[in-house]
Amino acid sequence: MNYEDLYQSLFPDEKTAKEYITSIQNLSKKITKETESGDLKYLARDLDNLAQTTAALSETIERLQSYVGAFDSRAYFESGDFASQMLDICREQDLDVQGEFPVYEMFPYRIRLDVENQDVYMDKKRIQCIRPSSFVNTVKAGQEKLQKAHFNAQSFAGELADAYDTAIMKQNRQPGSDMYLTTLYKLMTPMSRFRKDYNQQNFSFDIARLYAEFMNGMNETKTGRHFDFGPARNNKKSSPYS
């Protein structure tokens, strides 16, 4: 079972339906003018053309409905075909994927396949899409948008350091204590409208870019404060600033 097969079946009739719709729109304009001008001869002709074109459009729509009705989207998800084809496309496009059915990570997104409702979730966003290639393109577009956003590693490290100091003070902990990055994110975006403009996906992506700079030898802020990352990615922890 493959959605691309359904797509290839739908495409010719979709194109034909579009052409019929354009013809109907043009005939409708002619009929309006002919009615206003009293051009009864051409009005009768175009009304007949409209009836024929409308009937042809109806037949085309019925064929499209039969194709769609015959496609079992639930079985497509339950069988794992959607997931398998999605992973194949990710490999073809060099898109890193972690996890296994039905939950995956395509950094910085958590992907969940909702078999019951035949939906796909990117984090908490529900996407009604059963075409694997279209969904993968959506993920890549999101990643590219994040990648294009301006990023200054040292400035970001400094902002993290300020949030870290605030967290230490609020939690009455000793300087040098490890701190969860999620805690720092909440301090950096104290109001909900800030989180809307700069959500956790943006933050995670910036952390990844900072980590890349760290691996390339950058380990201090503009003010000379040193920082390090915790040993495990899944811990989502950053070692202390000093």
Overview in brief:
The protein is of the alpha+beta class and 242 residues long. It is 62% helix and 11% strand.
Shape, per Cα inertia axes: elongated
- Note the run of SSEs as H and E: HHHHEEEEEHHEHHHEE
Structural class: alpha+beta
Query: What share of the residues does DSSP label as strand, in percent?
Result: 5-15%
What helical percentage do the residues reach?
55-70%
Distance between the termini: 57 Å
Poorly predicted residue ranges: 232-239
Using only C-alpha atoms, the radius of gyration works out to 28 Å
Task: Report the average pLDDT across residues.
Answer: 90
Tell me the strand order in the biggest sheet. Answer: 1-2-3-4-5
Question: Could you tell me the number of beta strands?
Answer: 8
Largest sheet: 5 strands, antiparallel
Report the total helices: 9
Task: Give the topology, please.
Layout: H1 3-37, H2 40-70, H3 73-78, H4 81-92, E1 98-100, E2 103-106, E3 109-114, E4 119-122, E5 125-127, H5 132-148, H6 153-170, E6 179-180, H7 181-188, H8 192-197, H9 200-215, E7 228-229, E8 237-239
Helix pairs in contact: 1-2, 4-5, 6-7, 6-9
